[in-house]
């Protein structure tokens, strides 16, 4: 399959998983706890099964690393090319009835996130990006290209994780920057808002896993932004234990 075809595949599976998640939400669900005490629901499992089965059927030679499989002890080794799947990013917010949750499917090549699709089930939005080919947003049946923005004269719109918004490292990092607004937001939708030019900066101090970021990084970078470690080096994939360091998602010039 060509890279555009792979993006179409990821986007279609993300869209279908989003519909399945909303069906579970309407029907009602229980919240369970994994061994690390993080929440998991039937929606996580149904969405992951749908995505993983679809990816493995369409791309049998490309390994799939998926959050709930890893939590269950299913070990998939990194490869020169592999998928990273978070079937329901923001389960805590989903369980609390909030709207800030996402479906994330990213493809890694040579340690770099090269394409991604993110569906926002609560709003019906779908985002896609392919390095070198640009990024797009689909909403209400229409698809349009998106791009990061230059920081407006009034200053940066900064997004922070709802869980880590008050991390003590945030204030020193932002010191001296012109800030117009700070908002605490959950899930990978923060990448989407930077990619479409609604926000400018998303610093993340606090633990994330590779499946949390691969799709979002690909979309932001396809839209002209960047996702780096705090020191400015590229955020890479295939790390031991799939754990990310702290990172910064930058929009356009001045971010």
Automatic annotation (TrEMBL):
Binding site for Mg(2+) 1: 67, 86, 88-89, 212
Compartment(s) of residence: Cell inner membrane
Record PROSITE patterns: IMP_1, IMP_2
GO MF terms held by the record: 3'(2'),5'-bisphosphate nucleotidase activity; magnesium ion binding
A Pfam family per the record: Inositol_P
InterPro entries (alphabetical): CysQ, CysQ/Inositol_MonoPase, Inositol_monoP_metal-BS, Inositol_monophosphatase-like, Inositol_monophosphatase_CS
Name listed for the protein in its UniProt record: 3'(2'),5'-bisphosphate nucleotidase CysQ
UniProt source species: Roseicella aerolata
